[in-house]
User: Which sequence fits this backbone?
């Protein structure tokens, strides 16, 4: 019995998942390169969302 490793999803969802994976890889690489902690504001920018007013470091 062979394995079927195919999953069918809508193209838009596939694109969103690729974007999330790309952003996660960028955040990983950025974090590894930093000598100090990464600010919440930078994390929000890399992941593509805005912090509520007054929340940015």
Assistant:
């Amino acid at each position: 019995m062979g394995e079927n490793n195919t999953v069918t999803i809508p193209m838009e969802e596939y694109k969103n998942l690729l974007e999330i994976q790309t952003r996660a890889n960028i955040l990983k690489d950025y974090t590894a390169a930093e000598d100090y902690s990464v600010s919440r504001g930078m994390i929000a920018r890399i992941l593509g969302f805005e912090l509520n007013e007054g929340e940015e470091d």
